[in-house]
């Protein structure tokens, strides 16, 4: 874990114009310009996959590439633009991050996917709830890419009903001892730390007996077992905790205050999914490819009508996500737009899958080598995962029913 000093003083006062010039100079010196994307039938990659089908070795190689870029970004002063100066951020407003993102999109830079959960959900929770020592110990290293974080919430019997989780943390002097099992932990296989929510007082109502911690994923007693997905890769894991020790200063928030900690993470998760919801599958590329599938359905008026319908729904979902993101950028809490955006995204994915199945038939099942045909199978097989991750379709419908339509609250079986 190396950690160099940023070459740009975080406290430096800089105008947006100066920042823009500095960011452009950095990108020009460190990355190649990205040529405008032109989707042309039969040219380049035909991938529309939602989950990458990579071997563990490829995952590690890609992680190293992402890490090298993240370190370069951080050392150049662009790795944590909005973070508090005291913890290694640059202390600049969100508008500076938007300037950087927009400039960066014109350059070919490595995917930052492996850092999505750590930086999108775990780091903001550490910043909000951890002790000063823990903030100093981890935040800068996370933003520099020296360490990776994962989210240890779901358990075999607790997903949507997260507050029913059973992994135990018992106090032993200045430490806590963790026993239990988590599941569906994305990226646990290469994570250095995890945010874990445990039950610390089973005698209290379920939301009130939970506590959050930062756990060292390399500690004795932590066992990570990969789960193979139907899309081929193994990006999720089961994680077993067998007498794993966590120092009390790695606690997040108050003892039995873990529900508030979990909500901070879930808010950020919705914001992250909502943000990517606009581009989780490039609306333009996917639609272009659907259009270019035209050879297969040009004489079918029903199919042509379905494509037009899909286009309208994809655009509407895109604008709903943008509305939600605009709220977040303005410092407001993500509202039900996030649930609407996510639900429309998954509905559209489902409709795209049904449409291509209708149009391509057996070409989706067997790979004939024909460009732009079998590749749609990975979208079809990845859609159920997106429908579940970050709140299932049914949970989104409950939120919309209660918060948008004003329907009565769902009865709770237990509290
Ligand atoms: C791609 C992906 C990545 C993930 N990454 C992580 C991760 O990194 N860390 C982590 O902790 N977890 C992760 N998860 C797990 C995810 O949070 C859970 O799968 C999700 O919360 C649903 O929980 P469950 O799988 O236990 O399903 P359940 O909650 O058991 O749901 C089963 C079915 O019941 C329905 N249902 C449940 N409650 C209600 C209700 N109140 N009303 C109506 N219907 C209901 C659901 O919609 C679903 O159809 C990931 C999942 C996926 C798919």
Which helices and strands, and how do they pair?
Layout: H1 16-30, E1 32-33, H2 56-76, H3 94-104, E2 107-108, H4 116-129, H5 132-144, E3 149-152, E4 168-172, E5 175-182, E6 193-199, E7 210-216, E8 222-227, E9 236-247, E10 251-252, H6 258-277, H7 283-292, H8 301-329, H9 336-360, H10 376-388, H11 393-403
Parallel strand pairs: 3-6
Antiparallel strand pairs: 1-2, 4-5, 5-9, 6-7, 7-10, 8-9
Helix pairs in contact: 1-3, 4-5, 4-6, 6-8, 6-9, 7-8, 8-9, 9-10, 9-11
The structure holds flavin-adenine dinucleotide.
Instruction: Determine and state the CATH class of the domain at 278-403.
Output: Mainly Alpha
Shape: globular
**Backbone structural class:** alpha+beta
Amount of beta strand: 5-15%
Describe the structure.
There is one protein chain. With 415 residues, the chain is of the alpha+beta class. Among the domains are: 150-257, Butyryl-CoA Dehydrogenase, subunit A, domain 2 (Beta Barrel), CATH 2.40.110; 278-403, Butyryl-CoA Dehydrogenase, subunit A, domain 3 (Up-down Bundle), CATH 1.20.140.10. The chain is built from eleven helices and ten strands. It has helices at residues 16-30, 56-76, 94-104, 116-129, 132-144, 258-277, 283-292, 301-329, 336-360, 376-388, 393-403; strands spanning 32-33, 107-108, 149-152, 168-172, 175-182, 193-199, 210-216, 222-227, 236-247, 251-252. It has a four-stranded mixed sheet with strand order 3-6-7-10. A four-stranded antiparallel sheet has the order 4-5-9-8, with no helix packed on it. The protein has a two-stranded antiparallel ribbon with strand order 1-2. β4 and β5 form a beta hairpin. α6 (258-277) packs across α8 and α9 (336-360) packs antiparallel against α10 (376-388). The longest helix is centred in the C-terminal third of the chain and has 29 residues, at 301-329. Mean pLDDT is 89; it is low at 1-11 and 277-281. The structure holds flavin-adenine dinucleotide (FAD). Flavin-adenine dinucleotide binds next to β3, α10 and α11.
């Amino acid at each position: 874990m190396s950690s160099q000093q940023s070459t740009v003083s975080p406290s430096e006062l800089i105008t947006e114009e100066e920042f823009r010039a500095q960011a452009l100079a950095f990108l020009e010196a460190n990355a190649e310009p990205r040529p405008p994307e032109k989707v042309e039938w039969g040219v380049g990659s035909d991938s529309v996959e939602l989950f990458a089908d990579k071997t563990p070795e490829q995952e590690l190689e890609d992680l190293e590439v992402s890490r090298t870029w993240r370190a370069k970004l951080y050392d150049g002063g662009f790795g944590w633009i909005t973070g508090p100066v005291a913890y290694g951020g640059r202390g600049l407003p969100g508008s500076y991050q938007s300037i950087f993102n927009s400039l960066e999109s014109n350059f070919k830079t490595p995917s930052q996917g492996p850092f999505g959960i750590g930086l999108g959900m775990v780091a903001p929770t550490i910043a909000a709830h951890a002790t000063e020592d823990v903030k100093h110990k981890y935040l800068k290293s996370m933003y520099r890419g020296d360490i990776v974080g994962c989210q240890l919430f779901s358990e075999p019997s607790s997903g949507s009903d997260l507050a029913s989780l059973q992994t135990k943390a018992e106090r032993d002097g200045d430490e806590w001892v963790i026993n239990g099992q988590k599941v569906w932990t994305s990226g646990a296989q290469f994570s250095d730390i995890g945010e874990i929510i445990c039950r610390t007082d089973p005698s209290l109502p379920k939301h009130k007996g939970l506590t959050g911690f930062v756990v060292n994923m390399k500690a004795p007693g932590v066992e990570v077992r990969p789960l193979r997905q139907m899309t081929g890769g193994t990006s999720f894991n089961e994680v077993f905790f067998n007498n794993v020790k966590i120092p009390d200063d790695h606690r997040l928030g108050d003892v039995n205050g873990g529900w508030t900690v979990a909500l901070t993470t879930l808010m950020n998760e919705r914001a992250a999914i909502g943000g990517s919801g606009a581009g989780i599958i490039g609306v333009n590329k996917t639609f272009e490819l659907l259009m270019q599938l035209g050879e297969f359905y040009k004489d079918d008026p029903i199919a042509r009508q379905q494509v037009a319908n899909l286009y309208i729904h994809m655009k509407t979902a895109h604008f709903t996500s943008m509305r939600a993101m605009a709220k977040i950028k303005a410092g407001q809490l993500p509202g039900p737009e996030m649930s609407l955006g996510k639900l429309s995204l998954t509905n559209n994915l489902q409709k795209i899958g049904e449409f291509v199945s209708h149009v391509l038939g057996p070409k989706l099942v067997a790979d004939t080598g024909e460009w732009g045909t079998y590749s749609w199978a990975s979208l079809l097989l990845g859609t159920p995962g997106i429908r579940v991750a970050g709140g299932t379709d049914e949970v989104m419908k409950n939120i919309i029913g209660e918060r948008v339509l004003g329907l009565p609250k769902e009865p709770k079986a237990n509290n």
